[in-house]
Amino acid sequence: MIFLKDGYFPFGYAFDCDKPNSTSVNDRIKLPFVTGIESGDGILCIRDKNIEANATFKNSKIMDLTPTLLYLLGLPIPKDMDGRVPEEIFKKYYLQKNPIRYEEPTEKTREKKQVYSEEDIKKIKERLDKLGYI
Hints:
This protein has helices spanning about 65-70, 90-95, 105-110, 120-130; strands spanning about 75-80, 100-105. Helix content is about 25%, strand content about 5%. The protein has a two-stranded parallel sheet with strand order 1-2. Helix 2 (about 90-95) links the parallel strand 1 (about 75-80) and strand 2 (about 100-105). The protein starts with about 60 loop residues before the first helix and ends with a helix. The protein is flat, with a radius of gyration of 19 Å. The protein is mainly alpha-helical. The longest helix has 13 residues, at about 120-130. It has a domain at about 60-130.
């Protein structure tokens, strides 16, 4: 069930995870919707033969998406990446056969990282908390 505040409208159609093409498209060009719904629980549909049937993500956050996708692609996860792979959704045999691999960040990755001051980090966390992400 989706509850929207006044002035917000759903755009696109509900996903049907049983269909091979699970995309959503807004075909109502004249619909005066407002984007930017930033709080509340999100929805993630994932389907794979290696995922437990009726699996649920426990205590997952949006930052878990990237490590999970890297894992499903068979790629190592940088040790300094935020988020986790929700092991509880995978079949045990798959986890045993494909252990989650982590790697040290490369120099190239480190060069691109921006260094934030403690004050900057505090402000960012406060803003994310107000948006409901933390």
